[in-house]
């Protein structure tokens, strides 16, 4: 605005809205340049309001002559007055730009400097006002946080109450439905038995239907053959049957006299006549009545002739009508001929149509004839698709047959393919049938192959059915898997006790990197207590190499060791936090030890930090040394310094407290002491701890600071609302320095406001005493 500055846009706007009826007296010619510049710009801003001086003075509860002197430049107004005018202009829809407001502030500072007697006090008053604003903001934030904390605590208690009600309701429902469950379990067993009977009937009816279909096709073929013969006889006019046999005649005698090549030709002729169903029935009939060697030859010839579909259609019917020995012999011969896919069809048909004892017999026969692989395939397929009672019956039948390994492999496959309820039911059934070794295989494979969520649910189901030893076995086996399984398994466990068992075992047997990954994952998932417990479990071993490896591994992960250590300091007791710092310090990890130290020293919980510092002092830690503590305290602001002082007092570290007070209060501005005392009072409240620390600060000021500083501190404490401590300082300073302190206080009083003696503590009392003496 002055000294060559261009007018701001806001100033132009202000000038535009000046109302002509408002006028001010001209400025005096003998005004200093700084005051004139401030008065001119302040008048320009004031005129934007469009109101008289007297009206504005009434609005602001000021004396009109005081406002006039401010606007005429006779007195330098306090910044509060200038800020109030700016705020009123903003309310009048004529706001100043930030640049114009800053220029006005610069002019105010220059005017204060030209007015030497009050500039120093004004600067101190401005700083005090800023500190008071900061205190009000912090107080407001504290109240907001307290309200939010009370709200969250109330909501937490409400949610906990709902959880308790739900748990009670669930327990009641569980007891109510337990009786119903027993009834339905009996009904389920009865229905299972009925299903088995119906399955047997279905298989019998399917076999009968296949035979009836073959008989029907044979009868239709015979009728067709007779029709053709009748037409031939009628056409030739004779009953001579000397003609060459027709296709129908060959089909009639196929089962008894036709050779394999003739059967293949008959199938070919039927294919040409689009009689595929008849061709398939011809192959079925021939396969059921001929020797194994002839059947193998027929099937091989059909494949070579391109009629593989008819061969595959005949195989399931053979399984249903031929004996187990014939089926196993056929499988052996087919395997020798290289027709492995036909053997698989036989195995699939056995799984689909055979009763459990027939499946077991076929598996035994296949094993004896050298087809152990196909025997295992048969048992594995049955383990996946057949009902559980059939599977147990097969296992019982195969006891002492040399197929124990095959049955175990089948159980292992069932563990990976069957639903979890089937695994629980199968475990119970196998235990009851004295087949515990197969139950062990089933559970071990489930623990080794199923997902983490499935394993956790399996363990819970086994425990719920009373199989606690089985559940513990599964729990132990699954912990042997990779760290990629262990992490989701920990998340799936709902019991922290079991989770801790997993972590304890991992700490004993896992590589250090795996342990670091576990700590990191637990921290990332919000389970800070478990992460910290695992970390401390490694620390308590006091193995420097492992601790350094663990910290290095966590440094390479996200979010890193610093965040994990910060969470640990919030979870651990102060003594354990001190032990953590000592472990890190012992292993040469100074940077990480410093993270722990700073996290605790900057903690809002003063008692917590005090116990931590006390434990460090007891253990002889490097961080409990006076020089180290001083170094860390140098960069602290007043809030954290206050917390540290209270913590040192709580820890009974008097020497450290004295040193910190000396560093903070000897050469600092008086305002810093006011802020420090205010912060100590707000943190500690009216308790002996905060009182002792504040009292020691006052004593230090009286002993070490100049008397002039003590005189300046007194009104500053009053202005900050610390009247009790102002009176304390007044009494101690008066007792220690007497007239010198009173003289300095009187000079401070003159510099501030010579008309208001009551603002200075001590003067009013002495005036009263003099009046009483008079």
Work out the helix count: 40
Strand content: under 5%
Q: Determine the structural class based on helices, strands and strand pairing.
A: mainly alpha
What are the segments in which pLDDT stays under 50 over at least 5 consecutive residues?
1-20, 238-250, 754-760, 762-774
Percent helix, as a range, is over 70%
Main sheet properties = none
Count all strands and give the number: 0
* Quaternary structure annotation: single chain
User: Whole-number average pLDDT?
Assistant: 83
Distance between the termini: 57 Å
Radius of gyration: 50 Å
Shape: elongated
Region (Disordered): 752-774
Keywords: Coiled coil
Organism: Streptomyces triticiradicis
Protein name: ATP/GTP-binding protein
């Amino acid at each position: 605005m002055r000294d060559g500055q261009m007018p701001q846009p806001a100033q132009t706007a202000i000038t535009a809205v000046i109302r002509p009826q408002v006028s001010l007296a001209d400025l005096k010619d003998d005004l200093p340049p700084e005051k004139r510049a401030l008065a001119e710009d302040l008048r320009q801003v004031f005129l934007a309001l469009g109101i008289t001086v007297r009206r504005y003075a009434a609005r602001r509860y000021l004396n009109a002559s005081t406002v006039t002197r401010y606007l005429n430049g006779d007195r330098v107004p306090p910044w509060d007055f200038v800020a109030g005018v700016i705020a009123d202009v903003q309310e009048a829809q004529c706001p100043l730009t930030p640049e114009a407001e800053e220029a006005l502030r610069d002019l105010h500072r220059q005017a204060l400097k030209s007015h030497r007697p009050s500039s120093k006090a004004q600067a101190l008053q401005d700083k005090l006002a800023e500190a008071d604003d900061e205190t009000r903001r912090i107080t407001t934030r504290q109240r907001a946080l307290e309200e939010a904390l009370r709200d969250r605590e109330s909501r937490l208690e409400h949610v906990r109450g709902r959880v308790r009600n739900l748990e009670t309701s669930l327990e009641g429902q569980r007891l109510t439905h337990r009786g119903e469950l027993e009834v339905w379990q009996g009904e389920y067993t009865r229905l299972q038995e009925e299903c088995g009977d119906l399955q047997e009937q279905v298989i019998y009816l399917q076999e009968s239907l296949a035979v009836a279909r073959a008989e029907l096709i044979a009868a239709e073929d015979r009728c067709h053959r007779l029709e053709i013969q009748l037409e031939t006889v009628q056409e030739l006019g004779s009953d001579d049957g000397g003609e060459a046999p027709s296709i129908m005649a060959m089909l009639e005698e196929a089962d008894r006299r036709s050779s394999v090549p003739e059967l293949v030709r008959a199938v070919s002729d039927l294919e040409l006549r689009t009689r595929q169903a008849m061709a398939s029935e011809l192959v079925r009939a021939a396969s059921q009545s001929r020797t194994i060697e002839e059947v193998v030859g027929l099937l091989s010839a059909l494949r070579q002739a391109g009629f593989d579909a008819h061969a595959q259609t005949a195989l399931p019917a053979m399984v249903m009508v031929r004996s187990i020995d014939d089926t196993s012999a056929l499988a052996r011969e087919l395997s020798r001929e290289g027709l492995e896919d036909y053997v698989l069809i036989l195995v699939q048909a056995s799984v689909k149509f055979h009763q459990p004892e027939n499946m077991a017999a076929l598996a035994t026969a296949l094993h004896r004839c050298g087809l152990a692989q196909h025997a295992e395939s048969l048992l594995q397929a049955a383990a996946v698709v057949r009902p559980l009672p059939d599977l147990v019956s097969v296992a019982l039948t195969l006891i002492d047959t040399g197929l124990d390994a095959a049955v175990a492999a089948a159980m292992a496959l069932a563990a990976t393919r069957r639903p979890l309820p089937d695994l629980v039911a199968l475990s119970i059934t196998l235990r009851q049938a004295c087949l515990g070794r197969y139950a062990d295989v089933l559970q071990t494979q489930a623990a080794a192959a199923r997902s983490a969520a499935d394993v956790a649910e399996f363990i819970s189901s086994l425990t719920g059915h009373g199989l606690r030893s089985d559940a513990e076995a599964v729990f132990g086996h699954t912990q042997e898997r990779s760290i990629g399984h262990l992490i989701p398994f920990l998340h799936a466990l709902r019991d922290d006790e079991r989770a801790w068992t997993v972590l304890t075992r991992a700490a004993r047997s896992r590589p250090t990197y795996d342990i670091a990954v576990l700590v990191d994952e637990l921290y990332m998932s919000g389970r800070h207590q478990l992460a910290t417990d695992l970390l401390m479990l490694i620390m308590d071993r006091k193995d420097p190499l492992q601790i350094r490896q663990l910290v290095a591994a966590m440094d390479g992960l996200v979010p890193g060791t610093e965040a994990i250590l910060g969470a640990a300091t919030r979870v651990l007791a102060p003594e354990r936090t001190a032990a953590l710092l000592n472990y890190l310090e012992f292993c040469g990890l100074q940077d990480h030890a410093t993270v722990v130290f700073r996290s605790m020293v900057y903690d809002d919980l003063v008692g917590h930090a005090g116990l931590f510092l006390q434990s460090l002092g007891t253990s002889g830690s490097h961080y409990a040394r006076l020089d180290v503590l001083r170094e860390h305290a140098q960069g602290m602001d007043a809030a954290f310094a206050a917390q540290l002082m209270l913590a040192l007092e709580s820890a009974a570290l008097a020497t450290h407290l004295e040193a910190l007070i000396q560093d903070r209060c000897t050469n600092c501005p008086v305002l810093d002491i006011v802020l420090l005392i205010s912060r100590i009072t707000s943190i500690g409240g009216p308790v002996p701890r905060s009182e002792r620390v504040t009292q020691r600060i006052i004593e230090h000021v009286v002993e070490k600071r100049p008397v002039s500083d003590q005189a300046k501190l007194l009104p500053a404490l009053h202005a900050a609302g610390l009247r009790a401590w102002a009176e304390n300082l007044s009494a101690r300073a008066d007792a220690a320095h007497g007239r010198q302190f009173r003289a300095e206080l009187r000079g401070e009083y003159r510099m501030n406001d010579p008309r208001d003696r009551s603002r200075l503590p001590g003067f009013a009392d002495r005036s009263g005493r003099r009046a009483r003496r008079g």
